[in-house]
Amino acid sequence: MCCCLKKFAGFLLLIVILLELMLLWWVKEWSPSGLLGWVETTNTDQYYSASAPDPPYKLSPNDRQLMIDLVTESHALSGAMSDFDTIVALRNWSRNVCPEFGTKSIDTNDPSEILQYFEAGGGGACGSIGVVYVSALLAHGYRARLVQLIRDPNDVLFWTTGPYDTHIEVEVYSPDHAKWIVSDPTFNCWFHRPDSNVPLSVRELQQIVHDPGLDVSQTGWVSLTEAGIVIAENDGFDTLPDSETYYIDPVLLFNNVFLLYYDIYSERSGPALQKYTSLLTARFMGSEKIVRLLPPGGAPSVIVKLNLAANLLPVAGLLLLIILVLPSTPVKTDDEEDLEDEEDWE
């Protein structure tokens, strides 16, 4: 192979390495999904069918049994006559084990630690309450997942530094309705249209928020619940916060939707190399990721483009490295070429 080509390949490899280091720093420090995968899609059928994949949540056997025991002791399910009744009762139980709603959650996703904190009188925000509710649903045999909501699309880039107007939502698969539905443990309610009692999913609420026919005010906001476009059903439970008195209409938070398809309960342990190898494997295999449901007509964000570049640059670097290690073809001098011509004439 020509030496000039190898020199050019070496130059390109150096650029690729520098770019990859910069992208990896961005992925680690600023990317919403960190080293995990990031997917953006408008084709949501795969996440809303009966056969939709379940998130890789690993609720420990001890936590699973703890949830069953605490719910049983509370008699929360004594009046439940259907799966939907059970989902509603578990939602109300999850809200009431938190003695006070606050703006911050305890810094753990371990349900037993959260419950101990609640029992000691500590309050919690939507994150802690959502983790407890999902744990209770999983322990009782239901399929459930956490969903991150962010109202302002510009705040998505500042995920790691704390964007405004955010919420942790819970979706559960309701056998009675044969669909995924929102069951919000923070506001202790579910949502439906005024002309139907069928609970709405996160995706359906997002589509309502992005309806171009909405008559919004000069600020671009409209209270969907006050306008009667969406009904927040609290099933007679009187808990705070509620959708009518909160500082923002909760439905507006469905503007940007992110399904959390990574293990919310477990933190990777062990040596740093083993930890990062596990994270990168999950990233490239797509087994743990954040799935952004793009609104109708939405275009991929810069986040997915940067993540794609971070994934493809190592492949380009490997190809350039192969070029470098291939044996070079020596460049012949004029004398050597003349000698070969003389030998050919002979």
Characterise the protein shown here.
- The protein is α+β, with helices and mostly antiparallel strands and 346 residues long.
- It has a domain at 43-266: C8orf32 fold.
- Helix content is 40%, strand content 12%.
- The chain is built from 10 helices and 8 strands.
- It has helices at residues 3-29, 45-48, 61-74, 83-96, 111-119, 126-139, 202-209, 272-285, 302-325, 334-345, and strands at 37-41, 144-150, 166-174, 179-182, 190-192, 231-233, 256-261, 289-293.
- The strands form 2 sheets. It has a 6-stranded mixed β-sheet, sandwiched between helices.
- It is globular and about 80 Å long.
- The model has no long low-confidence stretch (mean pLDDT 86).
Task: Please count the helical segments.
Answer: 10
Kindly, what is the distance between the CA atoms of the first and last residues, rounded to a whole number of angstroms?
29 Å
Unreliable segments of 5+ consecutive residues: none
Classify the helix fraction into a percent range: 40-55%
* Mass-distribution shape: globular
Helix and strand arrangement:
Layout (H helix, E strand, L loop, with lengths): L2 H27 L7 E5 L3 H4 L12 H14 L8 H14 L14 H9 L6 H14 L4 E7 L15 E9 L4 E4 L7 E3 L9 H8 L21 E3 L22 E6 L10 H14 L3 E5 L8 H24 L8 H12 L1
Parallel strand pairs: 1-8
Antiparallel strand pairs: 2-3, 2-7, 3-4, 5-6, 7-8
Helix pairs in contact: 1-9, 3-6, 4-6
List keywords for this structure.
6-stranded mixed sheet; C8orf32 fold; 8 strands; alpha+beta
